[in-house]
Write a structure and sequence with these properties.
Helices cover 13% and strands 37% of the residues. It has 254 residues and is mainly β. The strands form four sheets. Strands 4, 5, 9, 10, 13, 14 and 15 form a seven-stranded mixed β-sheet that branches. A five-stranded mixed β-sheet has the order 8-7-16-11-12.
Amino acid sequence: MTVMSHGRHRVLGLKLDILPLRGWRRVRPISLRRGAPVVVMFLWVIRLCAVECREVRLDLPWPPNQVRAHRFVVYDVFDPPEVSFDQHVVRVVGLVERPLELPLKELAARYPCVDVVAPFHCVTGWSVERVVWRGVQTKVLLEEARPFGRFALAWGVDGYSATLPLEALMEEGSVIAWAMNGEPLPRKHGAPARLVVPTRYAWKSVKYFGTLEVLEDAVPGYWEAVGYSVNGDPWREERFDFGRPQMRGRRVSL
């Protein structure tokens, strides 16, 4: 692509400078037409997908009673929000010594990235065998924030939430992802950022992720409030803590 080389170029009608910066390249707009900042940010995110990141591969036994699927079934409890990459902010709050509030673009530029290669297991019984998530490990942010609680409530900017034990967020494979399978994270999969916790059922991997709220005790999130498991370990088939609740208020697409 033109934007991957140095110098001055015209891309999609924009005149751009391509500048090297710590292993990746930033796009600086020189002259812009109407609507161009959106395109510039999109190109900037594409460049983040081209950076070389450390690979974290989860090679674990296949969980019981999970069927391999060729593609995702996409669930949304609420309508997907309109959130831009360059204006999105990630927060770590609650029982922490040092609360964090980081613009997503700063998080992606400043912190070491990883490519997590792992299956994706839905509590309804289907699994996608291999997904590559690019992002920053949650444990890196938690170590910086210095938590002193045992659980966290992960929040999406749409109001959705999920409960997680803090130990799950300290695992090597848990990330705040902005790319998926080598491309910018699609909106239907949670753009601009998704919390991904591969060792838990997929409802814990919060789409449109915005905030980790560290807590001492487990506070139910959206699905946990109706009986879904606080821990949600697929290998233990921890689907429900009580009852067999039906999924509610969902929107589904392929």
